[in-house]
Design a protein that fits this description.
This protein has 328 residues and is α/β, with parallel strands linked by helices. The chain is 34% helix and 29% strand. The protein is globular.
Length: 328
Amino acid sequence: MSDNCSSRIRVGVMGCSDFASRAMLPALREVPELQLVAVASRALEKAVIYASRFNCDALEGYGALLERADVDCVYMPIPTGLHPKWVAKVIESGKHLLVEKSFASTLDVARQLVQLARRHNRLVVENFLFPHHTQYSYIRETLERGDLGDIHLLRSSFSFPPLNPGNFRYDASLGGGALLDAGAYTIKFARLFLGEECKVISASRRMDASLGVDVSGTATVVNRKGQVAQLAYGFDSYYQCNWEFLGNRGKLICERAYTPPPGFTPLVRLEFQNRREEITLPADNHFIKMWRFVAQSIRSGESFEPFWMDLEQQAFYIDQVRLMACEL
């Protein structure tokens, strides 16, 4: 398929995650520019279950998906530890890629994969959904209008209760650990609101010696304007998913920042001297909007360089948190 032709972009799925079946694949079917053609799993039985639900072909083995000439773009919801092998194979097969976070476990790996994407001129998008939600747009516009005055402090927490034993996030060989999972969201948040000219000045990671992975952590990031972001993340707490912006005139709080589901109407709280406002925003579906974004990006004819740079920058800051962290 020509990247700019009018036919539908044909998508294949590598891996049968629960998240994919709950959120990403139903959303894909709502985008007319896309067509789901196949799903691949290491176990054929699992692929058959998916395929019957989403009316596509079932394939045994990830490699079988890459052999399909009728797949233009791959969606990859497999663990980070498997990305070095399979991201490379997807790119080398000439297909575009939407990949679950984190894209890479280290900056070195990210750079190698990005160089491969450059050589083959393939789009690679890391699946951070929240920047595509109207909640994010509303908050950014509020800050840019200056409603809160000069912003000096940003805070974000993303954590949830301990996972079931055997979850891949507890497996270091699969790229497990809280930093690469929940922590990646908070790093993306800091990058978006502080800008790329920022520095990690302190960090911590709480390790589980029996698992060999970090189960929680913190980071403090500052930009050249002196604005500070305080980040916390983990697998060892009650569910938290919030942003807080403190300015010299007021404060903004958002309590479902990263994962507002379809149909959910986000609540944003604004606090000023002797005044408080609560604003309910309209529901949105950032899963559908991400798929539209991918389709438009493939067809735009514009350079994929901003996407490749973004992948490297995200991996750079993850590395910086890891290098700066004192282990608890």
